[in-house]
UniProtKB/TrEMBL annotation:
SUPFAM superfamilies found in the cross-reference section: Homeodomain-like
GO annotation, cellular component aspect: cytosol
Name this protein carries in UniProt: AraC family transcriptional regulator
Signal peptide range: none
Keyword Transcription: yes
GO molecular function: DNA-binding transcription factor activity; transcription cis-regulatory region binding
Domain HTH araC/xylS-type: 239-336
SMART domains per the UniProt record, alphabetical: HTH_ARAC
Keywords: DNA-binding, Transcription, Transcription regulation
Database matches in InterPro entries: AraC-type_N, Homeodomain-like_sf, HTH_AraC
Keyword Transcription included in the entry's annotation: yes
Domain of life: Bacteria
Species in which this protein is naturally found: Thauera aminoaromatica
Amino acid sequence: MAPTDITAGTIPMSFVLNLLNGTPLDPAGQADALARAGIAPVLLGAETARVTTEQFATLYRQLASQLDDELPGMFSRPVRSGSLKFLCLSLLDSATLQTALFRLSRFFHLLLDDFRIELSREGSLVRMALIPRMPQAAANTFGQEILLKLIHGVASWLTGHRMTLARVDCSYRRPSHASEYGFLYPGPVFFEQAVSALYFEAAQLATPIRQDRRSLARFLARAPGDWLFVAFEQHPTRQKVREHLRPRLGLPISAGQTASALHLSLRTLTRRLAAEGTTFQAIKDELRRDATIQLLTKTNTPIAVIGQEMGFEDPNAFHRAFRKWTGSTPGAYRPK
């Protein structure tokens, strides 16, 4: 059995709810898909609950298979199994990313009635915009989130590196999980814009395509994980703090000690984190939360031991902290 990566991230339960709500499955079908993904149904009602990215990807694959729809239930007609494979095959012989993105926009013109993907030049930027083709499409927030991620994930895979974005526009209001966007999109995000769109620096589109049929097989085997959950962090100080804390989650590391390790004063570290919209304690809690969920869902390690590994000598303090992080008890995350 492969070792558990306790540093892997988690995502909010709202992603699971949005995914399920778009499907025509009855409660029994949804319960079966959740069970196969290792997601406890009781967590669906917990507003602050989280799931691992692996659990979400597994649920996504289950629904895609059951519904024969690679964007399960998100749009007015299904995207049949094999569509992503044929899309990527059509892109592999493109000379540059620009040609590939143009082909991608034409491919989705054949697949989707809800949106067309418009490729246009705006000064030094190239915009990939989702233009609604039917009245109800503009209200489909989750479908737009996933489609933007698919475009970006495929572009990143084609070029062999994580593509940065000059900006991301979202036509909808700021969602409750907007804080997660820093990990979904590698660029500044703006809400309530005219249309949802990704903006690339024009020079990036001259990047050659670096993939072939052999690497495509690996990419498809890991879908949707490789295009949906490509982790990004656009806040350099927060990222440095996370990297320092990850191997030390069970130790009583203070903000002052971390500042010294990063060759900063405590005041400077605090100021920089505040400018990035976070605090030292928030970063530490996020890491411990995600690590705990990974261990609860992937191992049989006793809950009390997990608490100790996260730096809690008192089991009651660990339970209180976990409930504060997720709205549920650690036991609710254990597979039944």
